Task: inverse folding
């Protein structure tokens, strides 16, 4: 149903998200509930459509999963963001006031969709310096959505600007540290890779369609009037290997999460993210080398996807994540690679 809805959607990511919410297409199976692959398939469809939309859709659906897991507020019709980036600098402060209510103060960076969303889950620190998560209504006087902090060409539609909080009313979600220690934290981190995969698949399909067209019969006797460039065929082979391998890891990992939803999933999530990141990078490199400048300059959808994907992929922490994965393996000494 999501794919059908998106086939008639326009280019405005926020408006498309609002339409998907209104149609009930944001109610995905929760991670670890037995249908994690179905959830990831929806995220992949979102990424296949448009990565700025996927960024907002993934954040909103992740927020719904977090709220369900931690017992946060349920607000009908709300559109949510998850703003939990922690760059160097002062953290947003969560403080309890004399009347028992909580407020947020400080500047939050990387707030995707801030100008269009109604609510957000914001990482913050309490008076003791402990890491917390708070739900905040963005349509109140204590919230100022700036036009600063986002000058990207790729992922421009996600509008991930800075937001200033000035004693904005907020509701703590869960206990201190529970956002990070809950089982679903790494399940959600792995799900982001499904968005990347969907975009890589779209780029790969553009190459496949173009190459197939070169081999299509065009003469009266059914002979092909031209043969595909062997270099292009080799590039297509690279794309097939990358996408097939990434798909297998996503499918297997979704099943593993469903089989043991309460088991620590850091290594699994990092493996998923890094595998899909590598695959998406491979697809982008080989598809653009095979197709040349034409689609990058004359095909608006392909050009936008090629500009968006490298930016979204940098949500991965690259070598730092590789080092963390390697450290996890080295600490146990157990080889997880048997068939």
Result:
């Amino acid at each position: 149903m999501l794919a059908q809805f998106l086939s008639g959607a326009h280019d405005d990511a926020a408006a498309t998200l609002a339409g998907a919410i209104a149609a009930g297409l944001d109610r995905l199976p929760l991670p670890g509930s037995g249908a994690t692959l179905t959830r990831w398939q929806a995220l992949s469809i979102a990424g296949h459509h448009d990565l700025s939309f996927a960024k907002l859709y993934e954040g909103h659906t992740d927020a719904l999963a977090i709220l369900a897991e931690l017992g946060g507020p349920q607000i009908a019709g709300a559109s949510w963001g998850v703003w939990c980036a922690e760059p160097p600098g002062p953290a947003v402060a969560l403080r309890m006031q004399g009347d028992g209510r909580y407020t947020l103060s400080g500047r939050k960076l990387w707030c995707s969709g801030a100008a269009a969303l109604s609510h957000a889950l914001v990482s913050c620190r309490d008076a003791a310096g402990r890491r917390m998560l708070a739900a905040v209504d963005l349509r109140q006087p204590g919230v100022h959505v700036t036009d600063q902090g986002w000058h990207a060409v790729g992922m421009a539609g996600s509008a991930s600007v800075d937001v200033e909080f000035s004693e904005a009313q907020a509701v703590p979600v869960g206990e201190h540290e529970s956002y990070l220690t809950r089982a679903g934290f790494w399940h959600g981190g792995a799900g982001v890779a499904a968005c990347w995969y969907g975009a890589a698949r779209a780029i790969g399909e553009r190459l496949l369609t173009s190459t197939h067209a070169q081999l299509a019969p065009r003469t009266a006797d059914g002979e092909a009037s031209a043969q595909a460039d062997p270099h292009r065929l080799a590039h297509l082979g690279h794309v097939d290997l990358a996408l097939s391998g990434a798909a297998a890891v996503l499918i297997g990992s979704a099943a593993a999460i469903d089989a043991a939803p309460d088991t620590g999933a850091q290594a699994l999530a990092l493996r998923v993210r890094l595998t899909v990141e590598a695959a998406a990078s491979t697809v982008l490199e080989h598809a653009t080398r095979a197709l040349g400048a034409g689609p990058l300059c004359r095909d608006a959808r392909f050009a936008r996807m090629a500009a968006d994907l490298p930016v979204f992929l940098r949500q991965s922490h690259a070598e730092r994540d590789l080092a963390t994965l390697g450290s996890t393996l080295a600490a146990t000494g157990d080889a997880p690679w048997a068939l």
About this structure: The longest strand covers residues 161-172. The beta strands are 80-83, 93-96, 102-111, 119-125, 131-137, 143-145, 161-172.
